[in-house]
Amino acid sequence: MLKRILFSGALLVCGFYSGSAQQIPAWQQLASQPAREQCATMQMDSALRAKYPEMGSRAAFEKTLQERIEQIKKLERTGRLADVVLTIPVVVHVVHAGEAVGTGRNISEAQVKAQLETLNEDFRRKPGTRGFNDNPNGADIEIEFCLAAINPTGGTITERGIDRINGASNFGKSTWSKADIDGVLKPNTFWDPEKYFNIWVVDFAASDDRLLGYAQFPSQSTLPGLSPNSGAGSTDGVVIRYQSFGNAEKGNFPVMQAPYNLGRTLTHEVGHWLGLIHIWGDANCGNDFVDDTPTQASESRGCQKGRVSCGGTNMVENYMDYSDDACFNIFTRGQKTRMRAVMEVALRRANLVNANVCGTSVVARPTANFRAENLRVLLGGQVRFTDLSTNFPTSWTWTFEGGTPSSSTEQNPVVTYNQPGKFRVTLVASNAAGSSAPFVREQYIEVLNVGLCADQTNFSGTRTVLRQPGGTGYVAGQNSRKTKAVSEFFDNSLSYNNMHGASLRFGVAKAAKGAETESIVTVTVWNARGFQNGPGAVLETKEVPLRTILEDVANNRATSIVFDRNVPLSGLPFHIGIELTYVAGDTVALTTTRDGESLLGTSWEQNANGEWERYRVRQGLNVAHEITARVGMKPSVQLTASKQFVLPGEPVTLNARGASIFSWAGQNLSSTLGGQVIARPTQTTSYTVTGSGLDLCNATATARIYVQPGTITGVPTALPDEALTVSPNPSDGLTAVSFRNTSRGILTLSVRNVAGVEVLKQQYQKTDDGFEKTLDLRTMPSGLYNIEIRVGEQVVRKKVVKY
Ligand SMILES: [Zn+2]
């Protein structure tokens, strides 16, 4: 396929230029071919970071990397940098479909060896090979690759560095798309990425048949909650098409296809795996963050020697270009510094050089080493330790100063810290050859004097209600620019998992219909996966009566809310804010700090077009909203009321969650115990539930029910919550709805999105107690939806989350 495209492309050019074809340099003919998707590293990087936000951004990694690069350059200038050759153990997963060894996709051991030899020639700039150059900027990277001799359980590998995988019998696939490789193949076949550099050699599926390979960029995995061998760790490595893995000059390998048959696809992808970017910076005259590679307009094809772009002669021989294999021969000194820095700052890379799995057998004692999942924890928090000792230890002796337990013999223990301070951790690892020296990390774990339940705010300063500059209304509320919503960003740096409530301080609240208003204000929680950490999908909403806010503003206090459930934060950043409506003529505005009192740019607004922007960017204001998030590692008691405005004596169902035993206080309750009670208030009342029986962050929750004068007519009766179950929830959109009660007749099933818009409505005839339906929201955007089932005057609602 690839050959055919190359051939027809060249023919077209020849035909067009007819007789003068020989005057056209070969590279111009090649450059006029349709662009090939040769290397998918950049594309896969974006997808991976979207899937695992805890990897952090490439920009953040670049910052750490540049700091280390500057240090290395300084050491080089003073001659204080010792030259050490780093050796990286490799496992090549040869993915075949049942062919005999050495045939077709099941490439021979000789082909694998030829490839590794080529990789080392290129990385060591070895004289007398294609990997040599005499460019003054050309560098010996001083990194070598060895084929592993020991497998992850300490056994000897018969064909060194090779793991043959029958894709057909194990996964039912003989050809592989990128999605299947990263979703199925890699997570099921990877070897510990801190001991082995994983390379998969595959036959790409037809959808990817223009692809030669792709790599996973290095990342910092020091963020809390990110286990190095899960998430992005399970896909770390390089994928190469089998027709381009090897070197046709080093043996008879008939499956290899020119012009990508000299093993340089792997050199290119290992460059990415060690942090290098394409030489053209993936943009027109873009930046590859290396200062001795010439700027280049775009990828080169064929071998465009002497190509000029971006005001200079390009380096088409650089492995990070798209030239043919035979054209390549150089990594620069700047690229070397970058790769060597990656070997220090990227954790999975750094540990590889100590893996010691290329030796022939386990004869030496272990060298103890370990890492903690997180170095800072909350008081009462837990830390998981990961053994990184070499030489396949069989027993471990850990000592944890300040921890519970204070010692352990597990390989990867979990320890709880109940006192603040900085604590030492010690490990001795042993195998049949003996015990290691104790490995000690002093003051390794820092336990903060902050609990598992906390109030977090960015507000610190002078309480202010900012007027809209050059318009009417308020910056953090309704205004003449028709701001749709405002939010406050919380970085959640201590990785809280739950939010049970929030408090928001309003400086202004006016109701067009006066004190008896039934208007509501929506408080919303978003994840921070929007553009530049802006608000993304809605995690939860809570409707607050404007009357509550009027009372709170009049009494000069913040408005406290309890969400209907523990909002799952998953340890990630989030936003809390209010959504603004303009129809009723009501007005609200949050208080903020004074301009200049907050420099972190945590306040955001959604403009009239629905786009989110920071205040700092849009309006040049450095403020923080007065919003507090009630967060915790443990659950809290949650309270839902079926209505907030009722007529005197009208029933309201109150549901409590989060604990095992509940007690209630308030007027006219059907019971003072249990998870669900019916209240029939005759005047406006606050109902409070107290939970017990579990370790909780907050044991109480309150709901205020407003009573209107009038009589009861035709008001729907709320059914008990248990009448409706939705599972799974959260879901990918496909979820089963199950409703049970004794009523019969027309049943209406409707679904509304968070904006209250009905997105689905269906009617059925209910003829017995049970009603089951599969709901398909897969074509709808991610977020929160409200499901309602109504039979006659009876109604039940449930929130569902689509991720
Ligand atoms: Zn590439």
TrEMBL record:
Lineage top rank: taxon: Bacteria
Keyword terms: Disulfide bond, Hydrolase, Metal-binding, Metalloprotease, Protease, Signal, Zinc
Record carries keyword Transmembrane: no
Keyword Ion transport: no
One Pfam match: Peptidase_M43
Coiled-coil residue spans: none
Family: Belongs to the peptidase M43B family.
Annotated protein name in UniProt: PKD domain-containing protein
